[in-house]
Amino acid sequence: MPLSLMEGNEAVAWGAMASGCGFFAGYPITPATTIFNTLLRIMPPAGGICLQGEDEIASIGYCLGASMAGLKAMTATSGPGISLYSEQISFAIGSEIPLVIVNVQRLGPSTGSATRGADGDINFMRWGSSGGLPVIVLAPVDIKDCFVLTMHAFNLAEEFRCPVFLASNKEIAMTKESIDLDAVEKPRIIDRIQSNEEKFLPFAVKEGSMVPDFLPIGSKTLVRQTSSTHGADGYITTDSNIISRFQNRLKNKLESAIDSFSFHDSFTDENADTLIITYGVTGRAAKVVINEQRKAGQPVSLLILKTLWPVPENLVRNKAKKAKNIFVFEMNMGQYVHEIERILPDKKVKFFGQMDGRLITPRQIMEAISNG
Amino acid sequence: MDSLLNTGRPPVFCPGCSHERVTKALDKALSNMGLSGDKAVIVSDIGCSGLFDTFFNTHAFHGLHGRALTYAAGIKMAKPDLNVIVTMGDGGLGIGGAHLLAACRRNLNLTLLILNNFNFGMTGGQFSVTTPQEAQVGSGFLNRLEKSLDVCDVARSAGAPYVSRCSSYSSDLPDEIEKAVRFDGFSLIDMWGICPGRYTKRNKLTPQIIDETLAGFPSCSGIVEENKRKEYSHNYREIISKLKKVDPPRGIKAEFVFPESDRQEVIILGSAGQRIITSGDILCIAGLTAGLNVTQKNDYNITVLRGPSISEIILSPDDIGYSGIEKPSVIIALAQEGVDRRRYLFSDLAENTLIIRAAGVDTPESRATMLDVDLKARGIKSQDWALASLAVMAKLKKVINADMLNAALKLVFRETVLESALELVNRVEL
Hints:
heterodimer; A: alpha/beta; Rossmann fold; B: alpha/beta; Pyruvate-ferredoxin Oxidoreductase, domain 3
């Protein structure tokens, strides 16, 4: 098992290649830039297209065009860029355009600190679009996740025709780490379903499906794409019944399928009545803690969520069944904890957050737990 | 060739709107070219120009305000044989100004039809970038304060190889459009028109006045000689066809024995120019040669040639959980500014932490074991101090040994750089 040394961002780039990504466009921003740098080096020689947009709005716009022309597309930025992406993200949600968006989070608000990590955009990614319909957000913990979850992100974008975020963090993205790429278990590649209907309607869904089949712009059959509220034919509609069915479908296609992509790591101890719930790089410190606690004869359980949105409610409820005390740790001032409180109304949920550019340390987690 | 007009969805413009003339002219142009609907995509912007895609039996993409050129670029790069036609008003032109400049500079084969009617029709006739200063529009006095924009002038300066300006009432509008679509590169037509719903309610504008005004403007009739050059997507594909495929990194063979038994943390505190990050890389790769898991976090100012430079490395036979530095085995202190940024580390250090300290660097009080090395006195340049410190560690068999370090150097450096690195490492004595 020979190991290589690379950044989390490089692993994202290789994950994209392994997923069949054919198009990348981005605008330089620390700490996401090395995704662009890596893809510019490795993608064009393989026939892929890698562009630097004139700004963030253009970068994601290129991706939306390319995705509708049939290519698997990805863009990468950080919080300030997600702000600029926002309107295009709403478009991708409402018009069902497959796209992977890597958000290498840095310390905000605003310009904040370009080279300091945080998980400050967790709710922003979910709610920062007009209309408030769901998106998928996956959160890597380490370099291996950067590779594997990028592949899952592409698969989910294709399967559900929606934007999928990879919620990375400077602390994973720009940290170099050893990895054995060959040994990583890779998911099977999923491609969007190509329509074979004689009379193609770009937003029609077949019986039993909640996702429209796809044809690319430029195919023999004419394809329509629109940001306006539309019917199955891709033309604007004012019919409230059609609109209602459409909005419900966009919501349900993701929320009803969440159990099939609730990625996580969990370490459950039968004798533990305390459960730590966390995600992202903080999961690494939490793992150290549960090992120490076990050695000390005071076991604690741990759930590291890798799918954050839609909220994997069944998973969280299951894992929390036996726990009396729940501790949520986040590199922000308290965001996802409200989801945990919402789905575990009978449990005592405590929160520890830190958003100052420093990692939450195992010692801090230990102290928080022992102080109850 | 037949008309590509969608008879089921006829134009719905206000009576007297010049957009309807453009719709017919575009259809005529496409018919004259003999294009079937699947060979073209209409990428429409927002506003009245955003309705265009619905009138045609072609591929259609209707996106966000001002961003039509961005989708068009993505589509064209993905489908280079497709005729990509963008319809945009003077509103989209303003909001998407950066995209217009980029399209002109890039020269991707798109055709931009600007339906310029000098105001925001749909929202109530507010001023756009092309509204004359003397016009009475829905923005009160504001347009009187801002100079209007000559988009053709801007496009030419930005490098557009094809720029044309005409009246939407011109009898040869279909030919104008056809020439622009046929042009192999970015083409733009600034088509002046009349918005009867808003603009001409308070301003006098007729086809004749348009003609007279146009006559007073510098003529723009297509190809801009000084901007003629290779089309972007051809150019792009030509370049990438010559690139050599890049394989995923091959792993590094584990062949040496780690001189330690558990997780080791090393932090190098230096300043820009001391090759701190490179030395961090070398230390990590040395770890890989012993089959270890490693992490490396770097900290430096965005002005990369000035300020502190810090590398934090962890080598461990086990999975590395927490990637921060808690109990360093070795601190290499090579520059005051690096030390100052991590002053907080020193108060908690254990006795078995080794501090390798360059002469002249002051470190806070601690219980750690101090090894002062005067690298300067040994004739070693500041940019080699970090590497020399790794050599000190290897000599002490602290975290790494000489085999690991030499192997790492051979993996990182080539030829003369490698020779001098090996020479330096061998020269370092305790």
